[in-house]
């Protein structure tokens, strides 16, 4: 009937809306009818930003039609940041297969790995590490992915999943027991093992140690 496939509804276009509800059939139809695949909404987000939170099929369709996997929104967040934050590991994998930069930085210099780690998103952390995510990277506040996760545990919000996520990050960092290169590293390994990861933040807080040593035990320095 001559409807405009790229008409605005507020700050959104039809393609954005279809991705927000993970309607892959509608996404495909809109793309076939000429929807602008990299059009921006009012937050400078593309349809791929919304698809990355929701549905692998939508992500793959958008990439097939030329969506930019590294499009940055108003906060310099990429679709991969949002897939990691929402723990949609298959969307993250599809984006990485499609050319997404695994170590992309947002306005705070946080990477997708940092976004995944601060939520304890084990599956997304594993995918990102498999694709070469840098575990030692720090944001503008000096926080690493591991320290973002430790902050979650310090608030008493951790579970076995977060424990596993932290162990995975620490294994990649090479900071735990896989052949630490110094007596200092061995001592930290022994203390962390004796206290246990789940109870580590509270236990370390009770130790009669200087703040600098507590931060060292918690991988914050």
Strand tally is 0
Morphology call: elongated
Bin the helical content: 40-55%
Q: Which stretches of 5+ consecutive residues score pLDDT under 50? A: none
Structural class: mainly alpha
CATH architecture of the largest domain: Alpha Horseshoe
The CATH class name of the largest domain reads Mainly Alpha
- In the residues, how many domains can be counted? 2
What's the Cα radius of gyration?
20 Å
The name of the CATH superfamily of the largest domain reads Ankyrin repeat-containing domain
Here the CATH topology of the largest domain equals Serine Threonine Protein Phosphatase 5, Tetratricopeptide repeat
Proportion of residues in extended strands: under 5%
User: How many H/I helical runs?
Assistant: 13
Distance between the termini: 62 Å
The main pleated sheet reads as: none
Order of helices and strands: HHHHHHHHHHHHH
Walk me through what this model shows.
This protein has helices spanning 14-20, 24-32, 47-54, 56-64, 79-85, 89-97, 112-117, 122-130, 145-154, 160-173, 183-195, 200-206, 211-217. With 221 residues, the chain is an all-alpha fold. It folds into two domains: 1-68, Ankyrin repeat-containing domain (Serine Threonine Protein Phosphatase 5, Tetratricopeptide repeat, Alpha Horseshoe), CATH 1.25.40; 69-217, Ankyrin repeat-containing domain (Serine Threonine Protein Phosphatase 5, Tetratricopeptide repeat, Alpha Horseshoe), CATH 1.25.40.20. The radius of gyration is 20 Å and the shape is elongated. InterPro entries: Ankyrin_rpt, Ankyrin_rpt-contain_sf, SOCS_box, SOCS_box-like_dom_sf. Residues 168-221 form the SOCS box domain. This is ASB8 protein. One of its GO terms (biological process) is protein ubiquitination.
């Amino acid at each position: 009937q001559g409807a405009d496939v790229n008409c605005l509804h507020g700050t959104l276009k039809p393609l954005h809306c279809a991705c927000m509800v993970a309607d892959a059939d509608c996404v495909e139809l809109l793309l076939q009818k000429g929807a602008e695949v990299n059009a921006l909404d009012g937050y400078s987000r593309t349809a791929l930003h919304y698809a990355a939170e929701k549905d692998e099929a939508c992500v793959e369709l958008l990439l097939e039609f030329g969506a930019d996997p590294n499009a940055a929104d108003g906060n310099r967040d990429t679709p991969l940041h949002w897939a990691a934050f929402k723990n949609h590991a298959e969307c993250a994998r599809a984006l990485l297969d499609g050319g997404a930069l695994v170590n992309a930085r947002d306005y705070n210099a946080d990477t997708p790995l940092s976004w995944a780690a601060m939520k304890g998103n084990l599956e997304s952390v594993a995918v990102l590490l498999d694709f070469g995510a840098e575990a030692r990277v720090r944001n503008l506040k000096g926080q690493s992915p591991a320290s973002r996760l430790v902050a979650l545990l310090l608030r008493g919000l951790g579970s076995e999943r977060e424990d596993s996520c932290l162990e995975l990050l620490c294994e990649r960092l090479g900071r735990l027991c896989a052949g630490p290169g110094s007596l200092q590293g061995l001592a930290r390994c022994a203390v962390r093992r004796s206290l246990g990861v789940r109870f580590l933040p509270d236990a370390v807080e009770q130790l009669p140690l200087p703040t600098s040593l507590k931060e060292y035990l918690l991988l914050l320095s």
